[in-house]
Amino acid sequence: MANEQGLLKQTVFAKQSGLAVPATTGGKVKRRTNSVFTKAVATWQSNEIVAHQQSTGDNAGPQTTSGKLDAIISPSTFSEMFASLLRKDFAATAAITAASFTIAVSGAYWTITRAAGSWLTDGVKAGDVGRITAGTFNAANLNKNLLVLAVNSATVLLVVPVNKVALVAEGPITGATWTTPGKKAWVPTTGHTNDYWTVEELYTGLTLAEQFNDVKIGKADITAPPVGPATVSFDCPGLYRTRNAQTIAAPAAETTTNPVKLVSGMVVVNGVPIPITSFTTSITGNIKPGEAEAGEGGAINQIKDHIRGEVAATLQIMAKFSANTIQTLFDNETVFKVFLVLADSQLAAADFVTLVYSACKCFGDAPNDGEAVEIVRTYPITPQINGSGGAALADLQTIVSMQDSQAV
Question: Are 351 and 381 part of one and the same domain?
């Protein structure tokens, strides 16, 4: 008898049309480093006292499922899963065309001033990565990822190149276009989506499969080390498991985008790019199973739905102790912004994934110590909703937003 191997297994995610409607089409095979989905059954043990002085056994209650998908982050690969976690689909920001831009030096950064119109009403936000993609600009200014540090006014952006290669001051230049690559998603204040997924563990060596239905994307733990790619671990609670042959027809193959990494990206704290050694961040939807019910009957003993809590996030930054910038924010209880950019290379127009926390507080600054070590401080940071954000403002009214240069 053949035994299945991990190399032959495929993990397929397919979005359902609604609760209790398992998906049979539209699936995508997910790249992974590890994927474990299991069925769990609540049990209870009889505590009867009987003459034979022996246990009369355990009994099964409602079933649920738990799942964890560990993977390396790459553009587009997990955008739909992140969208489910954020409760909003990714959406494109319209390009700004036929504009007139002037690029000027501003200290260590650059300003882009438009002659007319408004960055704010056009939906450009602090933390966005954009590119100038048209106009007779110097080659150093075209098709380069520019992180928006601030929207200084309706007509002025403050930017820094993600690849750290300087811009060239020039302008005004007409016929200019500003493009926001890919799409963005964030936790909205209204109109939240409520996605359910079918996850199929497909054992291709045995032509067997397990289906985990009514799965939610409950949490994402992201780690960006100093060496190597950024990783994500998704918690995926579900309601029940079935065992059939393959049921999700012709799933799309894995994506082929390159992994993103911190070394090619940028971290901005309170409007200033800073060097760090690593960061970890978690976004949770606070999902838990609903209450068990009895009396309805049915073939499957299961919980009927999930209970959703509020979306919350945590962030931890580790940085060498070369300045007291974040310490001062901690001491003063300052609310500040953190932009995290992960890129796949140091090319000017590299693919990327970003996280923007536009209202944060720091709650610690513990250092390490030792004879042959550099002092590294750990800064635990808690994001919160930015109540000062909104449409036609410099920030979104949200706890967290994401941009994916290849989002679908």
Answer: yes
Query: Cis ω on the peptide bond leading into residue 172 (within 30° of 0)?
Result: yes
* Neighbour-count burial of 294, counting CB atoms closer than 10 A to its CB (0-12 exposed, 13-18 middle, 19+ buried): exposed
The predicted structure's pLDDT at residue 296: 57
What pLDDT is stored for residue 297 in this prediction?
52
Structural domain range at position 390: 8-38+63-90+186-404
- Residue tagged 């993977």 (tokens): 71
Query: Tokens at residue 28, please?
Result: 């995508």
Write the pLDDT tens digit of every residue in 278-324: 999 999 999 999 988 776 555 456 789 999 999 999 999 999 999 99
What is the domain count for the chain? Answer: 2
Encode pLDDT of 343-352 as tens digits.
999 999 999 9
Tokens of 398: 């949200």
Q: Is the same domain home to 25 and 153?
A: no
Residues 6+ apart with CB under 8 A from 295: none
pTM of the entire structure?
Answer: 0.96
Q: In the listed set 131, 151, 181, which residue is the last one of a domain according to the structure?
A: 181
The verdict on residue 58 lying in a domain is: no
CA atoms in the 13 A half-sphere facing the CB of 182: 26
The 10s digit of each residue's pLDDT in 18-62 is: 999 999 999 999 999 999 999 998 888 888 999 999 988 888 888
**Whether 115 and 249 share a structural domain:** no
Q: Provide the 10 A C-beta neighbour count for residue 11.
A: 24
End-to-end CA distance of the chain: 41
d(CA 332, CA 327): 9
Residue 199 carries which side chain, given as an amino acid letter? V
- Residue 1 pLDDT class (50, 70, 90 cuts): low
The candidate with the shortest Cα–Cα distance to 60, out of 36, 42, 86, is 42
Indicate if the alpha-carbon torsion angle 6, 230, 285, 25 is positive or negative: negative
Going by C-alpha positions, the residue among 307, 202, 231 that lies closest to residue 78 is 231
Q: Are 172 and 155 in contact (CB under 8 A)?
A: no
CB 25 within 8 A of CB 264: no
